[in-house]
Specification:
Pfam families: His_Phos_1. It is built from 6 helices and 6 strands. The protein is of the alpha/beta class. A 6-stranded mixed beta sheet has the order 3-2-4-1-5-6, sandwiched between helices.
Length: 204
């Protein structure tokens, strides 16, 4: 694989109401979300992608397919690159959560590794799933700029794995809608984190 630039781009805002967890729930981007992703087009004009991958959920796959078509590339779509599944809470408006479900989410938030209630996907399984899928794509990809259109949780799981950090540190990484993470990747060395860009300028 040699060395290359790796860009992780989170999907834009969706039509989900505030506070809703939409791990595997397949909701579309809102008009704002479409604008947020469109604001990143100049970046990909300046630094064209050589390989593109995405979750199969529409909020990621739609832009990934557009970018691939514009770049004259195939798009690698993989359901194993989906966001974490939030069990009973997935797609359920927060105002409908029971007291038990609220307590379950609070417990998970403080201990994502040890807590597995409410049907929430275990962190170890989630991390293993997305990291394995990422490695398979990386081995099949090519060129000097690999681009993954992804989810916030997936980006966190990948970063924690690459940086050798425990899952309890997940809340210390925040990626805005259409936020970007850029890394320098060389097979001979650990990945080098070059930057996290959460400044999304609409109309850019």
């Amino acid at each position: 694989m040699s060395s290359f630039r790796l860009t992780l781009l989170r999907h834009g805002a969706t039509v989900a109401p505030a506070g809703m967890l939409i791990g595997h729930t397949d909701l579309s981007l809102s008009p704002l979300g479409e604008q947020q992703l469109a604001s990143r087009n100049d970046y990909f004009v300046r630094i064209p992608p050589s390989s593109i991958a995405s979750s199969d959920l529409g909020r990621c796959a739609g832009f990934a397919r557009q970018l691939a078509a514009t770049s004259g590339l195939d798009c690698h779509i993989d359901r194993n690159l989906r966001e974490m599944h939030f069990g009973e809470l997935d797609g359920l408006p927060m105002e409908q959560w029971s007291e038990q479900q609220r307590a379950a989410w609070a417990l998970w938030s403080h201990n994502p590794v040890g807590y597995t209630g409410a049907g929430i996907e275990g962190w170890a399984d989630f991390s293993a799933r997305v990291n394995a899928a990422f490695r398979l794509w990386l081995q099949a990809g090519q060129g000097d700029h690999r681009v993954l259109i992804t989810h916030g949780g997936v980006a966190k799981a990948l970063l924690l794995e690459w940086l050798g950090l425990p899952a309890a540190r997940h809340s210390q990484f925040w990626l805005a809608h259409a936020g970007m993470i850029t890394l320098y990747w060389d097979d001979k060395y650990p990945p080098v984190l070059q930057g996290i860009d959460n400044e999304v300028v609409l109309g850019a």
